[in-house]
Specification:
The chain is 89% helix and 0% strand. The protein is built from two helices and no strands. Helix 1 (2-27) crosses helix 2 (30-69). The longest helix is centred in the C-terminal third of the chain and has 40 residues, at 30-69. The N and C termini lie far apart (44 Å). Keywords: Membrane, Transmembrane, Transmembrane helix.
Length: 74
């Protein structure tokens, strides 16, 4: 369990540093990179909610199609 938790934390830290580095490369300063990360994190819940709704709607459409047409025979 300890190794798994350590691996997850290490992955999160490495991902954070990669994203920060990418934003630094695009913005040219850590101040700009930090501001961009803040804006991205602020938008994340709304974007995640929209994505979840789209996936849910697509799953409902597929379910409705399968209910109407039935499963294809093999």
């Amino acid at each position: 369990m300890g190794r798994t938790l350590t691996a997850i934390l290490a992955f999160i830290c490495v991902a954070f540093l990669i994203v920060l580095g990418w934003f630094y490369y695009q913005e040219g300063s850590f101040e700009g990179a930090g501001a961009r990360m803040d804006a991205t994190i602020d938008d994340l819940p709304e974007e995640t909610s929209e994505f979840a709704n789209e996936v849910s709607e697509a799953a409902d459409e597929i379910s409705d199609e399968l209910d109407q047409d039935g499963l294809p025979e093999r």
